Amino acid sequence: QVQLVESGGGLVQPGGSLRLSCAASGIISGSFRVTRMGWYRQAPGSQRDLVARIGSDGSADYADSVKGRFTISRDNAKNTVYLQMDILKPEDTAIYYCNLVPPGGLVNYWGKGTLVTVSS
């Protein structure tokens, strides 16, 4: 059973930084490197939207609203994906979810989310 556990959320002032982590477990050894990993977020009353994702080749794409401020990365040896968030804005406040898609894309796995609050 694949499990994703996010960490690193919290309260931060506008202009500050946070680093989210997502650790994957329950996957076949060595297979994490061929997955596509992503971060999504959902604000109250809104739908869940893509923030950033990274492919098995390390290529990444971002939502326009976070380009230049957020950076997604992965450590395949640790089965972990990160989201470095800089120059945070109040509109970045949301629950951030980690997503794993194995090769083939027939299934999706989700973490339970971590809350990020940007407020003074």
Descriptive tags:
globular, about 120 residues, 7-stranded mixed beta sheet, 4-stranded antiparallel beta sheet
Question: Could you walk me through the main structural features you see in this protein, from its secondary elements to its overall organization?
Answer:
The protein is mostly beta strands and 120 residues long. The protein contains no helices and 11 strands. The chain has strands at residues 3-7, 10-12, 18-25, 36-42, 49-54, 60-62, 70-75, 80-85, 94-101, 109-110, 114-118. The strands form 2 sheets. Strands 2, 4, 5, 6, 9, 10 and 11 form a 7-stranded mixed sheet that branches. A 4-stranded antiparallel sheet has the order 1-3-8-7, with no helix packed on it. It is globular and about 45 Å long. The protein starts with a strand and ends with a strand.
